[in-house]
Every structure is written in structure tokens, then in C-alpha cells.
């Protein structure tokens, strides 16, 4: 039997024209931006893979949900609809909207973390680590060692190492650990998923020591897809069934809904503990807004609810994962080193292997990001020494194990023809990779410097 060709489970209703600058124009633009891709005007970018956060295309169902938005200050229908979907899909009784994921972290951490605390997890991402260190606490990376090898093809490289976690608890004591954070999927580690077996094991350790387990849930649906396709015993379960089981092991979650709820703005905190909810409520009102809108409009809460339903359907997720894998396969076929296997939301190019002549303290992944914009008009983001930031005590650089350029693919936005352009741009760089030199920081903020740092060429 001949296999039917694969195609996306949607059709295009509207398009947005793109401006394409020539190579010389792009070189001038990135120089004027002082080699920080965040400083580029979006209209000067042809294919924007800076982030998959808030950049997805909403469906007709989400756009119609916007029209049902109830903008009441307290107790709106939109909040109640969103809360019901979160209750049904994720299983948490207490829900608090925020305007995005880092706001959810700010509220939750304000209520639970103090100076000197230790926060174990699997390679906390930038805002998570920033919020922890801003409070004088210490993020502790307990990711499995295999996550540090970009060439190793394992199905769940986002897992927490149970021995590392237990050693951390034994060294510091459970009283100094207000939570363990499990990021699903693990963004810093290459968009790598976490297995259900690992979630269960981490949950058991947390329960034994009476430590809350919190999920950083921005890409939880993508994680569930990997469990469905890679973990024994889950092939015949629906994505929603897998999601429900995943969250049954957690005590709470933060969510940037700009990822797996496919909206342009929004987030939330969801908890089992009424006591923790009440502690967070004070900070949510102080920082975000009233408890039933928390920095979101009613219409955005309705779109979020619709997006959660859509993102937990297999056909949607299969289309998304297939495009990410398509780009990864194209780049790998050229001999260009990437983190393997392909991540859930992005392809991570190994800049350390690509530019061995550039020391990490001269930011090879930032160099690669600048080069890809110049060659092809593609904007990615550095996940390396710039993002890792300086040690908050010594102020020394702390280069990570991997030096990566992340190419984050927005949901339902680009075609595979665009992915071909991305691979072509990397091919041009690969052909002359020995000619590239490093960058030097001219200005950096004291925390989370990668957003606003400026550079000069060496």
C-alpha cells in the first residue's frame, strides 16, 4: 500500500507580506543594532525564529473566542471559562491569571522563595533563573549528564537526575528547598522532553521530603507528544490523557500561555494548595491585577482557553513536531552540528563545534546568530555564555556546557520552504566557518543581560 503524503491539518486564510532586505542592508542593520538581535526592528527580519513565545498564528476558533470576551473586572465569564478548561485539562482547582509566564514566576516566587533558598530543577531557563537569583536564592541544575552531550540521541534528555536531586536535598536540607522546578520540555537543554517515569520519580522524592513539585509548563503539550511517541505504554493514550497524568504528579505550575496555548499574550499559575494560592493572591493583586483577570483582558482569556484545547490534540502536535524535525534533518544533512534529537519547539545549532576557534567568552553562539541574520535574514537567539550571565557573587563569566543558537519555530506561521531558507543560510556560514571571529560586550545589565547587551566585533 502506497503511503499518503503528509500535509498540515489546516489551510491558510490570511497572509502577511514580508520585506526582504539584501545582504548589505542586513549587515548595516545588525551593526547599527550593536550585534544584539533583540535590537533589530522586526520588519527588517525575513524569518523570525527569535522565539516561539506569543508569535504563533491563532485559529478561527480562537479569533471567534475573542469576540466572546467578558471584560468585567471581577468574576468575568471569560475567567470562568478559562478556569474550567484548566481544571478539566490540567486538573488544578486554584487558578490565577497573569499577563505572561515570567509574571507567574514573579508572583509565585514572591510568595514562596527567600534569600539563601536552593531551587533544584532541570536547567532553569533565563527568566526562572533570573527571578530566583534576584531574590538571593540559588538555582541548582540537576539535569541528567547526558543532556550536556549534543550528539547523544536519547529520547528524554530533559530528565532530572534523581541521584543529583537527592544529593542536593541531603546537602542543603528540605527546609531550604521551597520547591523543585521541572521544566517540560527543557528549553535550555535543547527543547528536550521529560519522561513520565522521570516525572513520577521526581514526584516521589519531593513527596518523601514534603517539597512542592512545580512544573514550568510553557511547552507541556509538546512534552506529552514526546511521551506518546517515545515512551512505552503511552502509544494508545490520547494527548489529553497523558497531560492529565503528567500534572497529577505536580503540586502546581506556572504557564507562559504564549507557547502551548498559542496566544499572543497571557499566562497563569495553577495550584492544588489553597494556602499557597492565598499567599500568591496578595502578590498577584499587587503586581498583576485582580484575581480573575491578572493582567489579561477577557477576550485573551477566552482565546487562551480555546488554544489549550487545540494544542492538546495529536494532529496539531504532529504537524508542529514534524516541521521542527524537518528543519533539524535538513541542517544535519549538511553536516552542521545540532543538539540531537530534534527538540520540541526549536532546533539548537552547536556553535561551539561550529566555531572551535572562538572561545566561549567571545560568545560564538552570538556570532552565529549575527552571521545567520546577515546571510539569510533569519533571526535566532543565543542560548550560551551571554544568556548564562555572570555569577551573581563573583561576577565572573560562567560558560555553560553547550553554546547554542536556538531557532525557535512559531506555531502555524511558516512553511517548510521557509525552513529551507534557514538551512541554506547556515550552509553559507558552514562553508566559511573558519573565517569568523568573536565579539566583545560593550554594555551589559547586572542581570538577564542578553536582552539589552551591546557588542563590538573583535
Which helices and strands occur, and which strands form pairs?
Layout (H helix, E strand, L loop, with lengths): L22 H10 L14 E2 L11 H7 L10 H14 L3 E5 L2 H12 L5 E4 L4 H9 L3 E4 L20 H11 L7 E4 L12 H13 L4 E4 L3 H11 L8 H10 L3 E5 L10 E5 L2 H14 L10 H14 L2 H20 L12 E5 H4 L9 H13 L1 E2 L1 E3 L1 H4 L15 E5 L7 H16 L7 E5 L10 E4 L1
Parallel strand pairs: 1-10, 3-4, 5-6, 6-7
Antiparallel strand pairs: 2-8, 7-8, 9-12, 11-12, 13-14
Helix pairs in contact: 1-14, 2-11, 3-11, 4-5, 4-10, 8-9, 12-16, 14-16
Q: Can you offer a commentary on this structure?
A:
It is built from 16 helices and 14 strands. It folds into 2 domains: 23-52 and 314-457, Aspartate Aminotransferase, domain 1, CATH 3.90.1150; 60-311, Type I PLP-dependent aspartate aminotransferase-like (Major domain) (Aspartate Aminotransferase, domain 2, 3-Layer(aba) Sandwich). The chain is α/β, with parallel strands linked by helices and 458 residues long. 51% of the residues are buried. A 5-stranded mixed sheet has the order 2-8-7-6-5, sandwiched between helices. Strands 9-12-11 form a 3-stranded antiparallel sheet. The longest helix is centred in the C-terminal third of the chain and has 20 residues, at 314-333.
